[in-house]
Specification:
The chain is built from 36 helices and 4 strands. The chain is mainly alpha-helical. The strands form 2 sheets. The chain has a two-stranded antiparallel sheet with strand order 1-2.
């Protein structure tokens, strides 16, 4: 009966399904991507914000009797033991196990777990720390001492154990025990901070003598009747001396400084030691001793290593000495050094610069002028510009000093004029000097003199930099007529300078004189020699496009193509035709590509022809039909790999080189018999070689008969 019922139920389900209509799958007509895209990162962020993946917390378990508690402990211990058995080296499992036992007040079990863990990895610092913290937390002081003692014995280079051990003993009031631990630590000669911790510990309990003895051991360690340095650094001696000074043991502090000076000697002198020594004596009002210390150090330390020493000595003299003393002690030594350098080589302009920088900082204007006059008197003996490049800056610095520091405008003008008279303008000049002079006159509100100076410069020694500076000046003054005249003179001087032509045309465009700008461009492109003709033509074409003169732009492109058949010009023309007009732009653009392809047939650079065809193909892919796309695909070349023989400079063989070549379908169609001709040439060559080989025996017979 059950089978029959199931069978009848299945028939009823099938008939019901037959009566129901299966919904059709909706067909998506618009398969374009949506405007707002949703990334996987956004989905995850929304899921986290809505807390979709958060699981509810497990239900709280309440233990009501001892039997249930023991069962719970048994299950947890079994879980921990299983985790440890799976991977004994994961120390976090051991620590979690021990902390769980500690939470149940099972201290003996927790100790056992820690000991088992130490048997596995006794080098783990965290394990020792957790073990000792557990004992201290449960007030098991002797156990904690035992653990710290084992830790510092096993791992004596872990400073954290020593810090924790000494801190525990000090918190327990066991000062003697803490000192004993520090002494054990110092036997290992630890880092600097450990010694300072020991010293600070003794100072907290007013044990100054003990702290002094620690400092002595910290600085020097006696062994085998020799001084062996533990931390060879000046700052340790300075700290020791400041410790003595802080506790009012001034004689001890002075003795420490003297021992430090004697210890380092003259081979390892450090300015920081002498600065600290001098400041100590200054605090003791021993000013003569301070001067002696500074002089002693300055005479023996190299000058490049004594900048801080000089600075502190200057501050000291400003406090307790007079100005003459500062000049005599500090400046005189350096001045003597510079005097020796410039006497040895008067044309060493770098030494003059350093000397003048020193003199300007600490002396009066007359002395500075005297040194400047001596410096500029050393004119380079050779009239070549490379020998004058450093010398000219003496004049520039002299003029700037007179203008900015001395505030003497008349003397500044005299310096500029003297320099410009000295320069041999027929051989070379310095445009920066003329421009600086003109800018100075403008700052003095003397515009005619500035224009006269720049006009004289252009008349005597015209240079591109001079023209640009003069034009920039007139542009700032809004003297556009003068700018036009200057551009005309500039272009007469350098007609090949394309940048000047472009700037001139841009000026006329800004002023609204389009015809003048167009005429300037026409004059520019008609020049026989230009330094950057491609930039000039591009600027002219862009100018016409901005004016929306499209016919003139086409004419310009055609004129340019008469001069050069470069592929980039053709591509630029095609892109221009594509960008202007609405109805005729595609036929015009395609016509340009057709003309370019025909013109590039005779081009030796096949890469340029390939570049043109690729540009044409991209155009057809975007705007063309299937027929035009098929046509351009037929025009695309085949890329093949070839080999050619290389020759060295001396004519010997240098091996073979692989390169890529392009075979165009049009070239192979125009030359159908290339392969046949190549085979014919090879056959003819083989025939000649066989005839020559057949003729050689006859020659040998004739020679033997003769």
């Amino acid at each position: 009966r059950g089978g029959a019922r199931a069978h009848s139920g299945g028939n009823m389900a099938s008939t019901a399904a037959g009566k129901q209509r299966i919904p059709k799958v909706a067909k998506v007509k618009n398969k374009a991507p949506a405007e707002v895209q949703i990334t996987a990162e956004q989905l995850l962020r929304e899921a986290k914000e809505r807390e979709l993946e958060l699981l509810p917390p497990p239900p709280q378990q309440k233990i009501t009797d001892v039997e249930e508690l023991n069962d719970y402990k048994l299950r947890k211990r079994k879980t921990f033991e299983d985790n440890i058995r799976k991977n004994r080296t994961v120390i976090s499992n051991w620590i979690k196990y021990a902390q769980w036992e500690e939470s149940l007040k099972e201290i003996q079990r927790a100790r056992s777990i820690y000991e088992r863990a130490l048997d596995v990895d006794y080098r783990n610092v965290t394990l020792w720390l957790k073990y000792a913290e557990m004992e201290m937390k449960n007030r098991q002081v002797n156990h904690a001492r035992n653990i710290w003692d084992r830790a510092i014995t096993t791992l004596p280079r872990v400073n954290q154990f020593w810090y924790k051990y000494t801190y525990m003993e000090e918190m327990l009031g066991n000062v003697a025990g803490s000192r004993q631990v520090f002494e054990r630590w110092m036997e290992w000669q630890p880092e600097e901070q450990a010694w300072h911790s020991y010293i600070n510990f003794e100072l907290r309990y007013k044990e100054v003598d003990r702290a002094r003895s620690i400092y002595e051991r910290y600085i020097l360690f006696r062994a085998l009747a020799e001084l062996v340095l533990i931390h060879p650094d000046v700052k340790n001696w300075i700290k020791y001396a400041r410790f003595e000074e802080k506790h009012s043991y001034f004689a001890h502090a002075r003795k420490v400084y003297e021992r430090a000076v004697e210890f380092f000697g003259e081979e390892h002198m450090d300015e920081h030691l002498y600065v600290a020594f001098a400041k100590f004596e200054e605090n003791q009002k021993e000013f003569e001793r301070v001067r002696v210390i500074y002089k002693y150090a300055l005479d023996r330390i190299p000058k490049q290593d004594a900048q801080n020493l000089f600075k502190n000595y200057t501050i000291f003299e400003k406090k307790f000495g007079d100005r003459r003393g500062i000049e005599d002690i500090i400046v005189s030594k350096r001045r003597f050094q510079y005097e020796e350098e410039v006497k040895a080589n008067p044309h060493n302009y770098d030494a003059w610069f350093d000397y003048l920088r020193l003199v300007e900082s600490d002396t009066d204007a007359e002395t500075v002028r005297e040194v400047y006059e001596r410096a500029i008197a050393n004119v380079p003996p050779i009239q070549e510009k490379r020998h004058w490049k450093r010398y000219i800056y003496l004049w520039i610095n002299y003029a700037l000093y007179e203008e900015l520091e001395a505030k003497a405008s008349k003397r500044t003008r005299q310096v500029y004029q003297a320099c410009l008279e000295l320069l041999p303008h027929k051989k070379f000049t310095f445009a920066k000097m003329w421009l600086l002079y003109a800018q100075f006159e403008i700052r003095q509100k003397n515009l005619p003199l500035a224009r006269r100076a720049l006009g004289t410069a252009i008349g005597k020694c015209p240079k591109t930099k001079l023209f640009k500076g003069y034009i920039e000046l007139e542009l700032q003054l809004r003297e556009f007529d003068r700018c036009r005249k200057l551009y005309e003179k500039f272009l007469e001087f350098a007609p090949e300078n394309c940048t000047s032509w472009i700037k001139f045309a841009e000026l006329e465009t800004i002023l609204g004189d389009i015809d003048r700008a167009r005429a300037i461009y026409e004059l520019a492109i008609s020049q026989p020699r230009l330094d950057m003709p491609e930039v000039l033509w591009k600027s002219y074409i862009d100018f016409e496009i901005e004016q929306e003169e499209y016919e003139k732009t086409r004419s310009l492109y055609r004129r340019l193509l008469q001069r050069t058949q470069h592929v980039k010009v053709w591509i630029s023309l095609a892109q221009f035709e594509l960008s202007v007009g609405q109805k005729e732009r595609l036929p015009r653009c395609r016509q340009v590509y057709e003309e370019a392809n025909k013109a590039m047939h005779s081009c030796e650079e096949k890469e340029e022809r390939v570049m043109l065809l690729e540009s044409w193909r991209s155009f057809e892919e975007e705007f063309g039909t299937s027929a035009t796309k098929e046509r351009i695909d037929k025009l695309m070349p085949e890329k093949i790999k070839k080999r050619r023989k290389l020759q060295a400079e001396d004519g010997s063989d240098a091996g073979w080189e692989e390169y890529y070549d392009y075979i165009f379908p049009e070239d192979t169609a125009n030359q159908p018999n290339l392969k046949l001709l190549a085979m014919a040439k090879l056959w003819k060559k083989q025939q000649q070689e066989s005839e020559a080989a057949a003729m050689d025996p006859d020659k040998d017979i004739d020679e033997s008969q003769t």
